[in-house]
Amino acid sequence: MKAIVVFCCIGLMALSSHVFALTLVNGKQQVDISTSQLLADANVSHEMYAPFRRQNVLFEGYMLSDFLQQALGAQVTAARFIAIDGYDLSLQNIDERSLMLVVKENGEALTIRNHGPLRLIETDLGGRDPKNISLFDDWVWMIKQIEVVDE
Asked: Do 121 and 138 meet the contact criterion of CB atoms below 8 Å apart?
């Protein structure tokens, strides 16, 4: 049992030290953006109560629609988000929602340990109770790929 735990810890350390890149896919177009580049170019900050942290958090990153428009040169209305752990979620009307691609929390870069290196959040809670985390199923952690999909 001890050997399994050590192996798992070594595997997680290797994973967390790995230099990640976000892969954007639009048909045959593929763009890879390093996490260091995403951190350097983050251009939006937003402070709000974070349901999963149960406290106010200063998020830094990009408004998703603007980010995809700039990176892919196309307006994106629907996308599929694929996480490092295999979680997969498709969202519609992303161009009409206040979605933020987060790279930092309270000035610190996101890591695997704190659900990074990239996370998708909604900056407009739309009247939902932020203390009821079951209402936030569109928040995606540990994003590694965003794929444009047809609506």
From this structure: no
